[in-house]
Amino acid sequence: MSNRIKMVVFDMAGTTVNEDNIVYKTVRSAINEAGFNLNLEQVLAEGAGKEKRQAIRSILAVYANIYDEELINSIFENFKQQLKVAYDREELLPQNNAENLFQALKDKNVFVVLNTGYDRATAESIIHKLGWKEGVQIDALVTASDVSKNRPDPDMIHSAMKRFHISDSREVAKVGDSTIDIEEGKNAGCGLSIGITTGAHTADQLQSAHPDKIIHDLTELLPLLD
C-alpha cells in the first residue's frame, strides 16, 4: 500500500467492546414495548451501527411501514432509560485482543480512534466502565452526537482526521462489525474499510457492503497495515 495508514477508526459495540448485543436487545425491547413483535435478527439487520434514533426509525419503516416521529422519539427515550440500567447492571469487556492491538498500533505511531452510533454520554460511560481513557488506551472518541450527519455519512471520520491533521483519507483505516461501518469508511475514502465478524453482522452480510477485507479477530488487522 503506497499510503501508510496513520490512523485506525474502530467502531465500539461488537468491534472493540464485547457487550453481547445489549444495545440491540434493548432497542428490540423498547420497540416491542410499543406494541410490536420483532426479533433480534431483524433489529440487527436494519439497526446495526446506526445512530440509535435513526436505527429505530429504519426498523419501523422496514418492518412496520411506520414513519411516526412522535412514536420514534417515545421509543428512543424508553430505549435510553433501559440502556442506562442495562449498562449499569451488565458486565462490559474489551473485545478479545482489543487492548493489545491498541498498544501495538501506538507502538507503530498509528492513532487509535473510537467512533460510535451512541451519543457522547453513553459512549463515555462505556469507556469509563472499561477503564479506557483518551490519551492512554485510545487517542480519541468521536460519537454520533458530536457531528451533524451520522453513518453512513463520513462526518465522524472526517472529524477525527481534522483533529490529528490527516488530510489524505487513504491514510485512514475503518474497522467495524456492521455494513454501515464499511459504507462509512468507503464514503470517507479510507484506504481500508474492514469488516469484522465479532458483532452485529455475519460475514455474508458484511460482504454485501464490499469491504476491502473481512477479519474474524482484531489481531488479523496488523498484517493488513504493513
Automatic annotation (TrEMBL):
Q: Drop me one GO molecular function for this one.
A: phosphoglycolate phosphatase activity
Span-the-membrane segments of this chain are none
Q: Does the keyword Iron apply?
A: no
Keyword annotations: Hydrolase
Q: Name the Pfam families for this protein.
A: HAD_2
A single Gene Ontology biological process assigned to it is:
DNA repair
**What Gene Ontology cellular component terms go with this record?**
cytosol
Return the PANTHER family for the record: PHOSPHOGLYCOLATE PHOSPHATASE, PHOSPHONOACETALDEHYDE HYDROLASE
Q: What is this protein called?
A: Phosphonatase-like hydrolase
The species this protein was found in? Olivibacter domesticus
